[in-house]
Amino acid sequence: MEKLHPIMFAGTGSDVGKSITAAAFCRIFKQDGYQPAPFKVQNMALNSFATPEGLEIGRAQAVQAEAAGVPCHTDMNPLLLKPQSDHTSQVVLDGRPIGNRNAYEYFCKEGRDELRREVCAAYDRLAARYNPVVLEGAGSISEINPVVGVVPYYRDTYIEEEDSVALATKSVRVEKGKVNIAVILLPGSKSTLDDLYELRRNGVAAAIIRAHREGATVMGICGGYQMMGQEVLDPEHVEGDIERLPGLGLLPISTRMSGEKVTRQVKFGLCNPHSPSSTLHSPLMQGYEIHMGVTTPVEGAPDSPLNLLENGSTDGYYVDSTCMGTYIHGILDNPEFIDFLLVPFADKLSENAGAFDYHTFKEEQYDRLAEHVRRHVNLPLIYQILTKNHD
């Protein structure tokens, strides 16, 4: 294929469509026979993803790589900032955390040259392997001319968000004086102890415990899994000033924070909860881990892992079908696990509810997004720009 210039999508703020437009063009170039790859020099987001090499990048670039049909790699997002407070972020360089920096430290000249060299090298490696590179800018610069298209807002295409700034809500009828919650999912957190403190302070922790007693299923993922235990310890101040907090007490586990981060993609199956030993009784599923901290059963608690990994190690804790936790992100993308999670509600599910293939669904959504953008931009002009005066 003809070598194309790189293309960059910039904007004037966050959540203005840069990520989704870059994803659309990754799919368009793939459909047209090219081998594109996404690139963003620096991303600030808590929602990250594990590469096949067990390293960490922003989730937006992972989604764009999926749209491009290529494996995600740290060269696509060499610099990731994960906020820990209003003034401090964990700095992840080439997929590995290199420490926490406040804004002043980060923007000082000292150390910036090294970061610049690393991100430029990442881009050069990417540009040598892919054609074209689809760059996403920051929420700053914007070039208003020339206009090559006006893409209308869409409502019927579903692409994973970079962060939880967008919340789709649905009104449902509730019984008088009662919220009808069947499943409570406690998600991950970059600041587990601070968030656990807030849940206890504002009464949400007590409400979760009460809902579970009344029959709701509670499942924790990553930081949420840690919160469901008996206690969370941070004697080395990995996260902050809080050294210990009691958890929700729903799982007989204890978590101790550590400076070493676990980042890896995993294949796993469900452990048989009725067997004294861990045995796979379901097809292998896929997910990824990104966490700091080590979780173990408390003294006297039986070993009861939720998952058995392909390498023979175990993950999570299983009390019963209404109380469990795991470190595996993406676990809910697996239809086999959804079926397992909804077993207690089998009598309430529609008889017509069939298996949902999330991977196929995502591929369909990328194609719909690409088609939507194709209809509203001058694609021949864009290709003309990308091939003009190319040596």
Distinctive features:
single chain; Rossmann fold; four-stranded mixed sheet; 10 helices; 19 strands; 27% helix; globular; CobQ_GATase1; cobalamin biosynthesis; glutamine amidotransferase
Explain the overall architecture.
This protein is an alpha/beta fold and 391 residues long. It folds into 2 domains: 183 residues, Rossmann fold (3-Layer(aba) Sandwich); 166 residues, Rossmann fold. It is 27% helix and 26% strand. It is built from 10 helices and 19 strands. Strands 12, 13, 14, 15, 16 and 17 form a 6-stranded mixed β-sheet that branches. Strands 3-6-7-8 form a 4-stranded mixed β-sheet. The longest helix is centred in the C-terminal third of the chain and has 19 residues. About 1% of the residues have low confidence.
Write the layout of secondary structure elements.
Layout: E1 7-11, H1 18-31, E2 37-39, E3 42-44, E4 48-50, E5 56-58, H2 59-68, E6 79-83, E7 88-93, E8 96-102, H3 103-107, H4 112-129, E9 133-139, E10 183-186, H5 192-201, H6 204-213, E11 217-221, H7 223-227, E12 231-233, E13 244-246, E14 253-270, E15 285-297, E16 307-309, E17 314-315, E18 317-320, E19 323-326, H8 335-341, H9 358-376, H10 379-387
Parallel strand pairs: 1-9, 2-9, 3-6, 10-11, 11-19, 12-14
Antiparallel strand pairs: 4-5, 6-7, 7-8, 12-13, 14-15, 14-16, 16-17, 18-19
Helix pairs in contact: 1-2, 1-9
